[in-house]
Amino acid sequence: MRVAILDDYQGVARDLADWSQLPAGSDLTVFDRPLGDETAAAAALEPFDVLVIMRERTAFPASLVDRLPNLKLLVTTGARNNAVDLAACAARGIPVCGTRMVGTPTAELTWGLILALAKRIPAEERALREGHWQTGLTGDLAGKRLGLVGLGKLGTRVAQVGQAFGMEVAAWSPNLTDERAAAAGVTRVEKRDLFAASDVVSIHLVLSGRTRGVVGLAEISAMKPTAFLVNTSRAGLVDEAVLAHALRHGHIAGAGIDVFPIEPLPKDSLWLDLPNTVLTPHLGYVTRENYAVFYRDALEDILAWTAGSPVRLLSPG
């Protein structure tokens, strides 16, 4: 059995699970960089029976699945992966298995970005190294309003930290009720009011057909010129062109971005030249603790499948 682990950017996959447990005679290959376009990916992956993929780094549309005649099992880290065509896999009889996640690391990164923006940490750190001292004023978070677009597990955790900082917390999502918001100690508001009144807006929705572009011209135009926008969820939730324009022209104070339309970020990406941004390379889930669970579960998925009893199966729809 030939097994490949894809997109191991940090070079840690071999150390975080005991791959010696694979069936005798198995061959394990690890790819630590993106494979390129679909043709290059198909050529590199054609020999493998089992693929272990990291979240949404390499996409598996039907066109790629159909070019992998030897593929018998696909394992993705996490409990969902929008970049995998589950229907195409099902049509080929290829089971797709997921893994668990631990903690709320994305909520922690969200606060890293909020604090970096409010306290001007990257800008002041750079200035200090260049020989300058106190080049601008930072802002307090206490008494300010934190607006959350989405109040699920991650949004609720972000709300709790905001409350600990003494912030007033409001939230909106398509299905949020007054009762659910109140249970989290949060005020439910209408969408436009959230953007108009918040000092920090942080996005915590799952990307779907319903939520794609949920933050667009009307929402960003309503924001205060002193406000920050933070997105650690998915790039498709925000209209990239509208946000870029707002940042370039000072219509909002800044943005913290962890997710991008194309990843890894191309060297000519517009994001690299935008002012007043703190950018991170999709680090929300990239923790040692989470990766340990990812790879151990991935190994368990393979062993369960070889034993004829696959676990954590993902199904289309």
TrEMBL record:
Keywords: NAD, Oxidoreductase, Plasmid. Pfam families: 2-Hacid_dh, 2-Hacid_dh_C. InterPro entries: D-2-hydroxyacid_DH (IPR050857), D-isomer_2_OHA_DH_cat_dom (IPR006139), D-isomer_DH_NAD-bd (IPR006140), NAD(P)-bd_dom_sf (IPR036291). Gene3D superfamilies: NAD(P)-binding Rossmann-like Domain. One of its GO terms (molecular function) is NAD binding. Residues 26-311 form the D-isomer specific 2-hydroxyacid dehydrogenase catalytic domain. It comes from the Bacteria. CDD domains: PGDH_like_1. Residues 112-284 form the D-isomer specific 2-hydroxyacid dehydrogenase NAD-binding domain. Belongs to the D-isomer specific 2-hydroxyacid dehydrogenase family. PANTHER family: D-ISOMER SPECIFIC 2-HYDROXYACID DEHYDROGENASE FAMILY PROTEIN (AFU_ORTHOLOGUE AFUA_6G10090) (PTHR42789:SF1). This is D-2-hydroxyacid dehydrogenase family protein. It comes from Azospirillum ramasamyi.
